[in-house]
Amino acid sequence: MKEDFAKAREVCDRIRKEVSKVIVGKEELIENILVSFIAGGHVLLEGVPGVAKTMMAKAIASSLGCKFSRIQFTPDLLPSDITGTYIYRIQNSEFVLRKGPIFANVILADEINRAPPKTQSALLECMQERQATIEGETHRIEPPFMVIATQNPIELEGTYPLPEAQIDRFLMRLIVEYPTKREEIEILKLWDNKGAANNVNRVTDSKELITMQNLAKKVHCEDRVMEYIVDLVFHTRKDPNVLLGASPRASISLLTAAKAKALINGRDYVIPDDVKSLANHVLNHRILLRPEAELDGLTSKDVIQAALDSVEVR
User: Fold this and answer.
1) Do β-strands 131-134 and 172-175 pair in parallel, antiparallel, or remain unpaired?
2) What is the pTM of this model?
3) Cβ neighbours of residue 184 under 8 Å, at least 6 residues apart?
4) Computed from CA positions of residues 271, 277, 278, 283, in that sequence, does the dihedral angle turn out positive or negative?
């Protein structure tokens, strides 16, 4: 068993190294996306245009050896544009299923908040149930399966805010920051070396990834660490600045993410530091602040930090 965990860590190290060839200075972000993938979850990337959100998704899919598809969300996008539809073929006089881009392993849902609610609901079924309903028939989406959605936090005109139910389906919301000056110089050097931006090689495959996902479920978590997770979540519900605290699904998400985090570090057990490092990413989009708290400049990150500062491991 220990050999399996050591091998999993080796594979994850290869993935991170490969993606880092084209993505500069986003090591923690890459690791968190990998954690989400192994945990079987989805990721919401939030950042301004031009900070490599799309390239990051493509690079990760290439290194994983997985089928990648991109869906550009627009106000006129229909559910059938995502799931697919039946088309009539004159040659044999029958309807044939043409599957949509959702039938892949890594899906980039670009500017997800630009799609109307009906289309978002179709994506929600795929994310939660791992299946798509086409003309009344249910079609299974083969594993591994992950949605990496992006949204621009600045440009809100012509957008449809994601409902709380759909936001809660994302295991993590990750903020993509601007690079530092040194990192941006490295980016320019990388792009000046023509062709370097496309040199991402496959270092694993779908079969090995599914094995790692199953292995992550076997990672041990002591009762005291579980109590720590629940105490953190309960603290967000009791905070006077919070209108709606994190739900039990948040506790489950934090546990599964912590197990995946332990796996990629070669451990078969969860430690409190795994939980602490992931708490903000797993909980920040699951907390709704009171209007007066937002007017005071408070953010969900502040609430989570207050919980981390107050709650101790028993």
Assistant:
1) unpaired
2) 0.92
3) none
4) positive
